[in-house]
Structure formats: C-alpha cells, structure tokens
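Morning!

As promised:
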Amino acid sequence: MFFSSLKSKFISVTLVAAVTLGCALPVRATHPNLVITQSDVELMREAVGTEGRFAQAYQTLKNTVDQQIALPITVPVPKDGGGGYTHERHKKNYQLMFNAGMVYQLSQDDKYADFVKDMLLVYADLYPTLPLHPERRVNSQNPGKFFWQSLNEAVWLVYTIQAYDLVINALSEEEQNVIETQLLKPVATFLSSGQPSTFNKVHNHGTWATAGVGMAGYVLDEPEWVEIALYDLEKSGKGGFIRQLDELFSPQGYYNEGPYYQRYALFPFVTFAKAIENNEPERGIFEHRDGVLLKAIDTTIQLSYNGLFFPINDAIKTKGIDTIELVHGVTIAYGLTKDTGFLDIAEQQNQIILSGDGLRVANALDAGKATPYTFDSVAFGDGKDGDEGALVVMRSQVAGDQAVLFKPAAQGLGHGHFDKLTWQFYDNGSEIISDYGAARFLNVEAKYGGRYLPENNTYAKQTVSHNTVVVDETSHFDARVSVGNANAPTLNFFESSGHGVVSSGEISTAYEGVTLERTLALVNLPEMERTITLDLFEVTSDDEHQYDLPLHYQGHLIDSNFQLSANTDQLPALGEDNGYQHLWLRATGTPESGLARVTWLSDNGRFYSQTSLVDGDESFLFTQIGANDPNFNLRNENGFVRRVSGKKTHRFVSLLEPHGEYNPSKEYTLEATSSLESLSVTDQGSVTVVHVTLASNEYLVAINHASEVSEQTQISFQNKTYLLNGHLGVFQLNNH
Amino acid sequence: MFFSSLKSKFISVTLVAAVTLGCALPVRATHPNLVITQSDVELMREAVGTEGRFAQAYQTLKNTVDQQIALPITVPVPKDGGGGYTHERHKKNYQLMFNAGMVYQLSQDDKYADFVKDMLLVYADLYPTLPLHPERRVNSQNPGKFFWQSLNEAVWLVYTIQAYDLVINALSEEEQNVIETQLLKPVATFLSSGQPSTFNKVHNHGTWATAGVGMAGYVLDEPEWVEIALYDLEKSGKGGFIRQLDELFSPQGYYNEGPYYQRYALFPFVTFAKAIENNEPERGIFEHRDGVLLKAIDTTIQLSYNGLFFPINDAIKTKGIDTIELVHGVTIAYGLTKDTGFLDIAEQQNQIILSGDGLRVANALDAGKATPYTFDSVAFGDGKDGDEGALVVMRSQVAGDQAVLFKPAAQGLGHGHFDKLTWQFYDNGSEIISDYGAARFLNVEAKYGGRYLPENNTYAKQTVSHNTVVVDETSHFDARVSVGNANAPTLNFFESSGHGVVSSGEISTAYEGVTLERTLALVNLPEMERTITLDLFEVTSDDEHQYDLPLHYQGHLIDSNFQLSANTDQLPALGEDNGYQHLWLRATGTPESGLARVTWLSDNGRFYSQTSLVDGDESFLFTQIGANDPNFNLRNENGFVRRVSGKKTHRFVSLLEPHGEYNPSKEYTLEATSSLESLSVTDQGSVTVVHVTLASNEYLVAINHASEVSEQTQISFQNKTYLLNGHLGVFQLNNH
C-alpha cells in the first residue's frame, strides 16, 4: 500500500516539473526535497538578503565555502584508516559538497553547483575502480570502500545524497546519469543488499545505512529503497528504520548507550525522518510511537547539566547541547512544535542551521521569542519497553542549580560502564561528585591514535572508577558486556515533590549471591535555602565479602574529622586488577563509631562535606588516579573508598552537604565547616527515618520503601506521630 | 615651613565655618574633607537621585547598611587573635561605621549618623579600660589593643577617622569631645609616639600607621600629626610617609614584594595621598617623585594577565585587578588623570566607589567613555633606585594574547621566593608555564588556621618549585631571606620591538661560585601567526655540580619524543629536602643527542611543545607535586626537571611552541604535533644565532648579548650576511 501511494506521488511530481519549468532538461522540479524543500528554499533566499541570524549564518558558511572551493578538488584513492589522511579528506569532501550545494541554492550562483558536480564526477570515476578498503578489519561484516568501515560510507551517503539533491537541477541529463549510475546507486546498493547484516541491524550503524539508502530512494526515484530502508531488505519489519525507532529508544525517548551516544545516534534519525515527513507526510513519522523522536530530542537536552551531557558510559566530558547533531535536532523539534522553550536551547547552541526550520528558529530568536527551557526531575525508563531500570535525573533549585544523576539503568551495550546504581552530583554549575567518563583524547594521534585508550577498559569502565559498590574488588558482571546487557537493575520507585526527589533501585545480578539496593534523596530545606543528599546503600548476601563504596570528588581535600595515616614518601597502588591497579593509595583512616566527615573545596568556591554514619567498621582509603599509567593517559583525580570486610550485609549511610564559600579574591571565607551536628537512621516497617540536625534546624526525613504508597503512613519519633504521604517526607522539628 | 602654612589653613577654615553656617555648635564646616570633600558630597547627593551606576552602588550599600544597623551594636572586649571572633567583629565594625557614615552623608538621614555615633561612644567607653591585647606576641614591638597587632589597629584608625569625618557635623560638642579625647586621640597617640619603631619604619606597616595618624591630624585639628606622619616622629625625614614613597617603590612604581602585596600596600598610600591632596594641594603629593603613586597604580594593573596578578612570591592566585584596593587606586587615578584607559579597568572591576572620583568614574562609564587599556612589555626596575634587577613583562598579540613573565628581580623581603631568573608563560587566557604561588587557603580554619601553610616554606618558596636552575638540590641563597635581600640579580638588557621582546639577567650570588645567566625571547613570527619563546640558560662554575632546571606546566601530558621509564606501582619522592621531598618522581627519560620534545595539552584546548636541544647528558625527571603532604595541603600539579650532573658549565637551550587545537566538543583536533623540525644554536662573538625550522618556514633568531648595541652587528649564516639592529633580530630565510 505504501509502495503504490509513493509511486504515484513520484510520478505526479515529475509531471508538474516538466510542465511548469519547461526547460530543456527533464529536471525533477521538486528538488531539493529531503530535509529542505523547494518552498523552504524560496523563504531562505529572501532571508539571506535581510539582516539577522539567518543571513549571518549564511554569510559565514559562504565565506568558508568560498575559501574551500578555491582549492583544487582532492579525491584521494582510499588508503588510511580512521583519523588518517584519506579518511579525513573524504569526510571533509562530503561536508564540503553539502555546504557548497546549500550555498548554490541560496546564492543561485552556478559556480557552487559546478564545484559539487565536478567533485561528484571525480568520485563517479573513482568508485567503480575501488576494491574493499585496504584497512578494513579481517573478516569484517561491514567494510567500506572510501572508508575502512561502512558506517563512514553510510554517513558519506547521507551527506552526499543531500548535496546531489541540492544541485541536481543544475546538471545535464548526462551528468546526472554518470553520477547516479556510477556512484550513487552503486553506493546505495553496496550499503543495502551488499551488506544485509548491517543494513538490517537494529543498531545505530543500521540507522545511518537506512537513512542514506532511504534518502537516496527519494532523490533517485527508487521508492523501493525507501521501503527497504523503513522495513528491512525483506520488508519484514524485523529490521529497518521503523524497527530501530521502536527498539533503540525507550518509550520516553532514552537511548540506552547514554546521552553522549544518544546525540550521535539522533542525527540520522531526525534527518531521515524529516525527509520522510517532507516527502510522505501521510506516514506520520514524527507521530510514530507517541512521538518518540521528539521525545528523544527532548530527552537528550534533559540529560545535560550546565550545557554538558551527564558523562555516563563512554563519554567525552566536554560534549554538550551545542553539538551539531543536537543543533539539528532542536531545529527540527522547534519546526514541528513551535515550542519556544527549544529556542532557549537554540540560543545557547548559537548555531543556525540553513534549512526551513533553521530559518524559523533564526526568525524566532531575532524576534526574541525564546522562553526558558524547563529542566525536570525524571526517571527515564531504559530498554525498548522502558522496563529495564531507568536513568534518573533529580533536580533542585532551592539552593542554586543542583542535580543528582542516579543510574539504576541497563548496561548500554559495548560503550556501557559497569556502574550499576552509581551516582553523580552537580552544584552551582560544577561537577562535584564525578564520573570519569571515557579515557580518550579524541583524534589526538599521540594518544593511542585518538581512539579509546587501553585505560578505558582497564580503568574507566571498571566499577571502582564509579560511585557504587564493588564486591571483593571485582567489577559488576565480572566486566562482561553480554552479561550486563542481559541483566538490568530494577527501578523500585521515583518520586518528585516539594520535599525533593527520591528514587530507589536494586540489582541482584551484578554479583552472584549479592543484592545491591540504593536509595538516593535530594532533599529540599527551603527555610535554610539548602539541600542535602541522603544516600542509603544496602548490600545483602548470605556470604561474607569485602564491600567498597568509592566516592570520586572534584576539588581539593580540606580535612576529615578522623585521623588519617598518609603514605608520604612512597605511594603504593591500591590493588592489582579491575581498575584498582590505577589508584594510588594516599592515606587511610578508620573513624570510630559515629559521624565520619570528609570536606573538600570545589573550584566553584563552595565547600562540600560528605558525612558517613559509621560503626567503627568502615575504613576510608584516600586515592588518586594515576598508578600503572606509564603513558600519562589518566587524569589524576581524587576520591576515597569506604571499605568493610568480612561482612554479609552492610548499609552505607551518608549525607552530602554543600556549604559556605571560599573567596580569596575578596578575602572572605564563609561556613567552611559542615553544619551537620547529628545524624541517625532508624527503620519503622517500610519507612526509613533519618533524623538530621543541621546547625539550629532539626529535621526528620522519612523515606517509604514500599512499592505501593497509596495511603498515608504513620511514623513516630520521640513520642510524636508524623504522617507521611508518598515516598518522601520532610518534617521540621520545632524544639529548636 | 610646612607647619606654619598648615596652621594658617586650619585657622582660616574654622573661621569660614563659623561665619557661613552660623549654627549653634562650633562645627567644622569643611567636614568631610579626607578622601571625600564637601563639594564631592553635593555632587554625589545629586547623583544618587538619578539613574546610573553610581545610584546603583549607593542603593546596594544602603541596603547592606540598613540590614546591619538593624542589629544591636556589638563591641566585644578584645580576646581573639587573627581570624578569631573579636578580631573579625572589630574589622566588621570599622567597615560598618565607614559605610554608615557614607550613607549618612548621601541620605542626610540622621539615623545613620546616630548609629556611627553610638558605636563610637561604646568604643570611647571601652578604649580607656583596655590593656595591650592578650594575644599579642611575646616582646612584640607592635601590639594593638583592639587587635593582636597594631597593623590592624592602624587600619581601624584609617577607616574610623573617615567615618568620624563623615558624621562629625551631626554630633554635639560634648559627644565630639568624648570621642576625640577618649578614643581617637589616644589611639593616634598609641600608634605614633606609642610605637616609634613601627611608626617610623619604612615598611607597609608604617604606611598604615602614618596614614591613620595623618588623617586624624586633618580631622582633629592636629597639624603636627600630619607633619610627623609625613616626616617621622622627629620630623627628620628618615621615616614617614614621604620616605616610604621614596623607598618602597622603584622609580617605575614597582613594589618589590610583587603585585599581590603591591595592591595591598597601595591602599593606605592612595587613601592618605588623596586626603593630603584635598587638604593641602600645595604639597603636590601626586607629583612627588615624578608621579610615583600614579605609576604604582598603573604598574599594579600592568602586572596582571587576563585579570589576575602574576602570582610571584607569596600570592593567592585568584587575586586580580578587581580587588578592592585596586578599585580605589583606579578610581583615584582616573580622578586625577581622566585617562579613559583606566575606565576599561574600572569596567572590568565592576565596582563603584562612593566618592567624588567614584562618581566621575561612574558617570564616565555611564557615558561609554572607556577606551581599551594598553598592556605593555616593560622591565620594571626593582629596588628604590630601580637598579636591583627588574621584573620583566614580555607581551605579544601576534598569536592571541600572550605574556612571558621573567624575574631577574630582587628577593622581595619575607614574602619573596627563592626563584631568581624564573619565568612564567601565559597564552590564550590561561597559565601555561606556572608558578605555584603561595601554599595557603586564605581564612580556611581547617587549613592551618587559614595562614600560610607549613608547605609554603617547605615547598612553595623553595627554588625547585619554580622554573629556574637549582644547584645541587639546594635553594637560592640557601633559602635565607636576609642573604636574598642583600643580593639582587642584574638586568643585562631588555628590548621590545616588532621582532618581539628579549631580556637577559644574571646572578652570581644565588650560589657561591656559580653564575646563572638567562636570556628569554618572545619571538613574533607574524607570517605564521605564531610566536615561539626561546630560553637560553647558561650556568657557569669552576667546580662540578648537579644542575636542575624544572618546568612546571599546567595541562595534561600528551607525549615525549624520547622513551620514558615510569614508576608504575610504587611512587618515590624525588628527594629529601629543599622542596624535592614534595615531588613524586613519576618517570625518567634520557633522550639522545638532538631535540628532546615534551608536549602537553592545556585546558584552554591548545597544545604546547617544549623542545630542548640536548647532548645526551640531560635527564628528564617527570614529577607531580604531593609527596610528604599528609594533610593534602598541596595542589597535585605536574612538571619535569631537566638534570645534568658532574658539570662545571651547562647551557640549557629550549624552545616553547604553542600549537593546534583540541576540540572534542566539535570533534576535531588540529596540529597536535609540534611543527619544529630543527633547532641549532651557535655563537658569533656576543651574538647567539638560533636557527629554527618550523614546518615550511625557516628562521634565524639572533640575540646580541653585548651591553652596548648602538651599531649594527653583522652575522653570517650559510655564507650569507645579516645585519642585526639592537638585541633581537629575526630573519626569515628564503630557501623554503
């Protein structure tokens, strides 16, 4: 059914072209019609002649293109692998063809179309001569010809088919014929029927391939290609773009490799979807699965703090909402929804896309229509059905901009880290309790060719490099990805209210015979203009184990309220394997029963105290990253590991408190010491009652762990009764 | 002579007051007349009623004062030392009296004057009962009564006498009498004739004392006090404010403790000078010594990079041009000169002083009159006659904003570091080759009471913590301040031209029998839009020694072009004493003869390569700060030490090259490797000829070390002749 309707549309379009233009060549008058349509182009041409963001963006691009097309066309015979010269040159070429095509459409100056044509003709000469790429992996299922892997080849096609669509009207029939038959069609065929396993795969690589082939289908009048792109080579629906949309995102639009890869994966999705929308709006692609693509764009934004993505899994920590993929995403999202909150993000991105939606964004920004984008507390269900745990974001504005990221989420495939139930804390614009992210210097040849460093496996992915429990110095799932992928944690509950945000998750498959259960609460204390974060981590087993709970902090250690024994003239490594070999042991302390406090100072000028409630059985091991790192690949960051040994069960209890200000420039220091005076924890049925005294304010924080909390729960404290609604209650005690 | 002219002025003023005001009390109509005059006040009163920066600043201050005067007056009996409660309370009180007095003048609301009066009366009751402060040092020459040391007492008087001057017209004769006889006069007497050694001392402490007493002289009709403040207790001119002006600054306005203390020292100077100017313009205080005070203000600004002071000697590195003392300085400098470059600095300071000059600054900023302030390359002569070496600032704008700080400067008293001929490098807004500054967490009680940490002596002051030669692992002058103060380096030459900036200095007293001579050149290569920095460090002795040249860099090590042997599972300290005990030895390498390159990546996203020309005799020891630091007091920064042993003479030759860009957010990396292909150094008479090949550009850099370079010098290279003008020549060779 789809097929026939498509076919008729293509035919009618061709007829209209022939009639209205009446030029010598049988050009397809609706070009361009992928992400950008002919009617977009008319508005865009007008806009470049006026003042404003859009015209500026055009001028900037035009200047760049002018410089580049003044140079000779270079299409080298493929030779180098990722990062090498020919690899990078071919990447530059597709970007340049796309940009020059765009400038052609907006300037209507033939020299830009000629440039694209000339380069395409060189490629058309070259392609038929090419064998598989010499740097392909042995027995690779997905080699390329221009590139060592077909992923890059698919990206090449996504850009190049758009470039061709932009200039096609300026080419002779013969030129079109050469380019289509010698280059574009063979590439599309190579990437589809030539590589069924990749093309049909429900995976990001498949998305690029289907996007490229499907868009080529629209441009080259091959509606069948659109069908196979959407429903796989057999049109079975077991693979293809629609299946990818159904499986690669959770119902809330979360992509389970995490935001760093989500923004990357997003690009072929939104590009191809926009092309589908423009060509076949009747498919309702943006409404598919309750609008999951728009949700995916929005979720990518939500998974950021102060402009940067939460760096879970393999993530370069400087990546944030201004990445080009998300600029495209936000542009398309605004075009579809006209939600002015997206303009706030677009303003921060400070890049205008040259497209119809880009023009709408630029005009709206010029008109000052942006309204603040709202960052929420959300538990993003993980897995295609949203039931494989969740990635939890907890936010508060009571004491500045704060966020807790809690990760009872699924493994996230090969880029996932072994960090079930880990957390991070952000305050005042800065990372306070941190995740190492990926060990990688992207594209820096001297650092392992710019690829993931060996230390990404030996340290960054290991459990001890995160803020979660390590049992017996081995990583979750024994660091086996396949086991991790098969076993997600459970989200026990998530609740956000005026009292704050609370969430709990657990997993009993990370270690055989050990259950890990963590509850985190970001608690608002508005009368003190403060928050505290409570962390209750319960480890249960029938056997005795060593339990380590690391905390990686950003800042300079100020002091602890217990004695430390420091290694001063020889520094040993903390352990031998599973990431422990990369930690220097700087000092050890075993606080007596009571409150064990560690205070550090962040570069943001605020102090942070983490106070643990201990029984005399926890040792604190102060660490610095950098052991067994002969090539200086790791950042030398600080942390401490709380350790208990020979235990069947243990509850790690702690409270994190931001306080004070260090201002050496203005020469004042305020509240450099924690105001926590006492802390106690008791259990009343399913409710954990935490009694907290902070300076002159005393609170009960009650957390109900029951799965059903439909009725009020009664708790008692010092002969008084308190009524708890939901999972989290905060009661200010009046005896102060 | 001064005395009689003063006397007559005071008398005439009093007469005018009696005649023109004709009110009941014999008020002194010219109050206020210290930093702020009666005519200033009239203009300021007008300004607070209009819109603009001045009115905003007033409103902000008034809100603060309103909150504070709503609280009870608290004047505790002195008990605590520096940082303790009574100490901090008395500091707050003088600031509050001054601020309330200011709001009184501008609002003309009596409640503010009443508040100041009430507090002064409490002080007047308390003062006669006070013994010397219980926390004073044993046998102290300068105890206080409100404070443990009289320095704070003098600061108290500087603020309090101004507060009194602001409210005096609102007080009854009796109130004036009580406050003057029981409080202000006794304090002034205590600080002058009561402590001759401090009052007469040509030292910053003396400046505060003379400023307080002198200003009290103007307010309390004690012209004799002005005389002794200016010329010492005996009016001999051997001490006093004028002598301090003559000796504490070099002719160019450099204060030899360095900019961190210069901005602090500046405050009583400019405050008292402004009061002198307002009361006795005929003294021409701002013209004194060719305008040295204005030069001192300007020099403080010049000694900054990207808003922060060069952190030589004991310096907190976050201190910069927005410190309140320099805000006062810039305000007064603009008032005197109307130089609109000062407005550029004032705009960055973003604080308006409530004074006549502050109003002039605010109005000029409101009118958009600021013009860019020019940062120059300057050799600031050190010592009172400017002949005790120099602090050299070298700047370039050829490749962004770059600065080299070179320090052939004098010791700088007790806060000076043992770092003769050290250097620092700044680029692109960031510190690249760094100085540790002071080891101190200002006012953080947990860190050694907020005072200088023990590690300030054991590490931060020691030579190895700087970027200069250490002989036999001992510090310059064997770390004896008195020896350092007696022996300054020599500035051999300094020259700034289109080719760049070059400077050379030497010292033969830092170590017995060893001469250290260093030449640094920041060389412009405009055709490459680059600079390079050449560093030639010549060490000469008749005896064999070990010579170490450390380089402390900010960033992440990328690689070296020679093999490193790393300490991977045990980290030893580099040495046992003189700062070496605080360095971990992470790796060692001994490059073969030729170019030894080390590359690191700065947080600013640029790469830096330091390439040394070696003979196979230099070892490179890669270090990290943090050994023997049981309290986690030190920052864990990185560096490497070049070492030769058993040598009489050695020339350390190196070239620093900023290059490329690391942009993981936009996913590109440019020029991550050094473009230096070859480097050679030859000597032709007094000229050192450096042949540099950088990618496709080849240069000769010639440095003439002769003290006289009045004539052109001929040098030859590869059978061609080049003519060198001055000390620095750069010749682009054409054979590429």
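Chain A has a mean pLDDT of 94.

Hope this helps with the figure draft.
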